[in-house]
Backbone:
């Protein structure tokens, strides 16, 4: 187990390094950054000035190692547009994105677990089919569109929830629902498959032979085992949700990290863009490690003899 | 007083296709070991599971009579049955490696039975669990209680299953091939343990096996199953001395010395295979393989009594 | 207890219905995509400022010449919807071709060669999964300017992971089968074994993945276009139509309802068809 964790850590560091390189290359794709930062009306002198100011006149490799070196100390550079430290910008916006992601995850679990259990217990019945349909519908739903539809219905017509902004917890409900939709299909299917497998297992037959209550059989003995892969995937899904929240933050005008990235892309503010890519990738890698740890907590077999 | 377990005319089908058990009758008296033998797939497990009402989804049972301690099991709903299971009637299975929940400790799985049925405190239940682990021959029970199933060997797990089955002092213990999945040396130990517990606790035991050596050593009574039916039933000595059904005779021929049969040898090296039995099947299911078969064997077969307490299902007269 | 209850009768019936629904939806969409120029009642790009935001047929005061109404520039909504279908299908298929080529190559190599190569493949997949797709796609298009080709290449370069995962694991399974072992012994070249033995045997799995990927690419294209960094206007991408309708949605909700429903139905149809194919080929889910 310990060796396994060490190996995972090494891989995680390598992944982060690779993503760093890719993010750097990505932002250099447009060719001459100074020209695009300066904008269409800039004179040649302006462009030269920018090139000097941002160190873009140095060799690319020097720029790269400079960036990596600083990033390792937590310095992600300076935003051209916001005239602020990128790390500060991201730190300011991160709570909103995290709140959104966690809200989405909680909603997704609250919906998926009961649905998956229900479908498994009623396998091959109409109810099971309905649940599978729900999963298919969730998979086909364009999230940004669902967001707009919710704004019209829940927000405007019914007036239940605020339409956009971040003023209160209610502001996170609609975007949370929308974000949850992307994770519900996978989590529901996994719960269903896990429960079906568990319910057919020998230890569930033992639990029944012991005369345990139905609730104890389902929720203690079967769900505990079915939940092992679900929990792992849930952590990974949270990573995907944080990465995908850019669309939803834009729809609901939530000024989180995704929104920051979107603004920065529009402004050619590449230090911010490459930093957000890196931060999201690192969070994802960290979450996959959390998933492994949770697996070890839930599954005693992984903890060794 | 009625028998501890009394089953008459048990039928079990899966879907509309297979009749796994066809009119099986058997009784288990208090304090006796009733062995159910027969080759793999003849319906032994299904019979036991039907008694416990533990059939897999799609299985349905009917019976003319099925009583336990005089209580009609057919009239019990799920809740009523759950109150008996693990309590007055307990069962252990063939697969010790997979029959315990991998996610919970041995202690947690053992104590929950007593807490559920007797409302015992966690402390009392833990004490009882430790006592029983010691009773089934597990050293350092306190340590074992805190371990997870994967930390135990197959033999230990089966001992845990046995101890767990005994938590509520059952009257009836159903053991479905409890030693088949174990190493040969461990098999003998577990079997000795079961026989000893049965005697000491006065258990009624329904022991399913396909090992006639075991039968000769521990059984009070034997029922031989073939293709979903009990084809012969008698007291052990009677059956070994005077087998009547051609299938039983074939089985006994395959056991040169009772008790010395190779443990992994399948029961009955009788040529041929068991036919697939559908709901409309009539006549003797053994007739394809029987040396005595004639055309009357395709019709209804009578059940003969060779002597009181010894009956068999064959056209051949007593 | 190990014998599973086989009770597939009614389910199979229901499954085949849903598969047919999926096939019909996909069939109609493909026809619309191919025949778009012949099908459209109006020029999807022709603006008519006198006929802005005409309502669709189910509402009052509709203009029979514009069944689904018009958008904020007076362009016929049905015609734009049909052309949008063309864009969705085109992008979905081309992205999947690109990502499929990349993913299958990587996955088959890893699964077939094993060892160091496979380690590298696994690492590539892990790295790819850690990269936020939407953000990177937006950044590329934002920095390089929006064009269909760029969009397709970007998405193709980002969406190969599932192909690689499935190709890798199925290749490993196939490699261990007897007939491949026999081909080894007969002294065939590696390329021959790959093309004659491995690829045909993993093809059915890859077809199922391809349907999922087409659906995913269509959804992503719509999202990027919605954010203004996908298909360049005035092309009528459904995502772009929703973005353009957004400002009017509180008064004329149908301007976003129509393209959104179209998008939803098309993706649902592709997924239903993919599910049906999965059952047909007896392959397992790979998307959880
Ligand atoms: N869950 C099930 N579904 C369908 N058929 C079953 C099921 N369980 C058992 N059967 C059938 O019932 C018959 C008897 O099985 P079983 O009682 O397990 O035999 P054994 O005597 O070896 O314990 C077998 O032919 C088997 O195919
Ligand atoms: S009934 Fe006929 S076939 Fe069956 S065992 Fe007796 S003699 Fe043999
Ligand atoms: Mg059995």
Residues:
């Amino acid at each position: 187990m310990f060796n396994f964790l060490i190996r995972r850590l090494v891989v995680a560091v390598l992944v982060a390094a690779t993503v760093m390189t890719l993010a750097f290359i990505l932002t250099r794709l447009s060719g001459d950054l100074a020209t695009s930062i300066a904008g269409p009306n800039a004179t040649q002198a302006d462009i030269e000035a920018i090139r000097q100011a941002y160190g873009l006149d140095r060799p690319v490799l020097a720029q790269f190692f400079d960036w990596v070196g600083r990033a390792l100390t937590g310095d992600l550079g300076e935003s051209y547009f916001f005239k602020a430290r990128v790390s500060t910008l991201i730190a300011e916006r991160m709570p909103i994105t995290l709140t959104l992601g966690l809200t989405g995850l909680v909603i997704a679990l609250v919906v998926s677990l009961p649905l998956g259990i229900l479908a498994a217990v009623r396998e091959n019945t109409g109810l099971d089919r309905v649940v599978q349909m729900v999963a298919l519908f969730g998979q086909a739903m364009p999230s940004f569109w669902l967001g707009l539809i919710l704004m019209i219905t829940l927000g405007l017509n019914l007036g239940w929830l605020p339409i956009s902004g971040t003023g209160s917890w209610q502001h996170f409900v609609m975007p949370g629902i929308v974000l949850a939709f992307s994770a519900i299909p996978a989590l529901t299917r996994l719960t269903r498959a896990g429960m079906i497998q568990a319910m057919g297992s020998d230890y569930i037959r033992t639990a029944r032979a012991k005369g345990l209550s139905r609730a104890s059989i389902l929720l203690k003995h079967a769900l505990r085992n079915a939940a092992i892969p679900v929990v792992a995937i849930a952590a990974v899904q949270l990573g995907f949700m944080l990465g995908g929240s850019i669309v939803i933050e834009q729809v609901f005008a939530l000024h989180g990290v995704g929104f920051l990235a979107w603004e920065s892309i529009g402004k050619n503010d590449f230090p911010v863009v490459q930093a957000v890519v890196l931060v999201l990738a690192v969070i994802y890698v960290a979450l996959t490690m959390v998933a492994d740890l949770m697996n070890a907590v839930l599954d005693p077999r992984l903890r060794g003899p | 007083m009625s028998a501890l377990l009394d089953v008459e005319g048990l039928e079990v089908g899966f879907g509309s296709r297979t009749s796994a058990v066809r009119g099986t009758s058997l009784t288990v008296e208090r304090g006796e070991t009733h062995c159910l033998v027969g080759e793999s797939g003849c319906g032994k497990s299904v019979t036991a599971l039907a008694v416990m009402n533990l059939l897999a989804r799609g299985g349905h049972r009917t019976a003319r009579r099925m009583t336990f301690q005089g209580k009609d099991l057919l009239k019990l709903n799920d809740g009523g049955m759950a109150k008996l299971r693990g309590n007055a009637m307990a069962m252990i299975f063939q697969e010790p490696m997979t029959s315990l929940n991998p996610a919970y400790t041995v202690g947690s799985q053992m104590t929950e039975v007593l807490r559920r049925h007797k409302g015992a405190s966690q402390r009392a239940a833990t004490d009882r669990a430790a006592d029983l682990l010691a009773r089934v021959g597990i050293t350092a029970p306190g340590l074992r209680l805190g371990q997870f199933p994967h930390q135990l060997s197959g033999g230990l797990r089966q001992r845990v299953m046995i101890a767990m089955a005994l938590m509520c002092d059952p009257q009836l213990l159903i053991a479905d091939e409890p030693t088949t999945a174990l190493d040969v040396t461990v098999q003998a130990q577990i079997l000795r343990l079961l026989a000893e517990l049965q005697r000491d606790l006065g258990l009624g035991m329904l022991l399913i096996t396909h090992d006639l050596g075991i039968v000769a050593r521990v059984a009070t009574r034997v029922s031989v199953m073939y293709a979903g039916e009990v084809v012969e039933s008698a007291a052990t000595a009677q059956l070994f001395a005077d087998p009547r059904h051609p299938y039983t005779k074939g089985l006994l021929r395959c056991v040169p010395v009772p008790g010395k049969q190779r443990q992994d040898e399948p029961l009955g090296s009788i040529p041929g295979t068991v036919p697939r039995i559908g709901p409309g099947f009539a006549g003797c299911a053994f007739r394809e393989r029987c040396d005595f078969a004639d055309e009357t064997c395709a019709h209804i077969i009578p059940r003969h009594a060779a002597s009181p307490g010894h009956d068999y299902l064959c056209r051949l007269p007593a | 207890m190990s014998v599973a209850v086989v009770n597939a009768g009614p389910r199979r019936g229901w499954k085949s219905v849903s598969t047919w629904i999926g096939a019909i939806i996909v069939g109609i969409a493909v026809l619309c995509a191919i025949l778009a120029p012949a099908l459209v009642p109006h020029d999807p790009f022709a603006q008519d400022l006198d006929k802005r935001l005409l309502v669709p047929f189910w509402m009052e005061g509709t203009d029979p010449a514009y069944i689904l109404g018009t958008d904020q520039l007076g362009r016929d909504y049905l015609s734009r919807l049909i052309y949008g279908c063309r864009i969705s299908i085109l992008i979905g298929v081309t992205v999947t071709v690109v990502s499929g080529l990349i993913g299958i190559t990587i996955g088959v190599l890893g699964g077939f060669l094993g060892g160091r190569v496979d380690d590298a493949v696994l690492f590539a997949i892990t790295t790819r999964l850690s990269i936020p797709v939407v953000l990177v796609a937006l950044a590329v298009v934002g920095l390089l300017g929006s064009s269909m080709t760029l969009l397709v290449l970007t998405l193709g370069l980002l969406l190969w992971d599932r192909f690689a995962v499935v190709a890798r694991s199925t290749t490993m399974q196939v490699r261990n089968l007897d007939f491949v072992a026999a081909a080894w012994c007969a002294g065939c070249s590696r390329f021959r074994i790959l093309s004659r033995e491995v690829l045909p045997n993993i093809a059915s799995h890859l077809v199922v993945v391809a349907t999922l990927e087409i659906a995913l690419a269509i959804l992503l294209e719509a999202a990027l276009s919605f954010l203004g960094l996908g298909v360049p206007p005035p092309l009528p991408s459904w995502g772009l139509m929703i973005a353009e309708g957004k400002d009017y949605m509180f008064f004329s909700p149908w301007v976003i309802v129509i393209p959104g429903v179209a998008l939803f139905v098309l993706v649902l149809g592709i997924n239903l068809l993919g599910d049906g194919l999965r059952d047909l080929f007896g392959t397992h889910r790979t998307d959880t």
